[in-house]
Structure prediction request, 162 residues.
Amino acid sequence: MTRILVTINLKNGVHDPQAEAVHHALQDMGFGNVTSMTMGKQMVLDINEDDHDKAIKQAEEMCRQLLANTVLERFEAQVLL
Amino acid sequence: MTRILVTINLKNGVHDPQAEAVHHALQDMGFGNVTSMTMGKQMVLDINEDDHDKAIKQAEEMCRQLLANTVLERFEAQVLL
Prediction:
């Protein structure tokens, strides 16, 4: 079994209104020293595959086919254990 | 400036229908060797504060007040740079 951490974030330059709204809310609440923020998703997948390289490749294929919107998002898969 | 990574996940035992739906979809698409998956959020905050400990404490306070739903979610803040 290999545990994979997948992180999915918007590509650079893609407008993120959700992060902007949260950033504004933080400012309004007194956290004025937050100069920028980005938001993303993470998933932890347990894959029944002992070969780490194969597990990473499978996770990347899952990202391309389902987990990420590759037009707007970039993804990264790394071994946790 | 300190860059903080905040990760927010559901507490253990909290039912996650979104992760369940994605897990089922992966199975249907032929990724039958995924035995479990969890989904969470991550945020990267640039905080105008050079003291790492203070920056972490501020990020944790933001989680408690806004970013996380502490009834259902647990959060973790760590220094990225």
In short: Residues 52-67 of chain B form the longest helix (16 residues). The interface with chain A takes residues 1, 7, 19, 22, 25-26, 29, 31, 33-49, 58, 61-62, 65-67 of chain B (CB under 8 Å). The beta strands of chain B are 2-10, 34-47, 73-79. The radius of gyration of chain B is 16 Å.
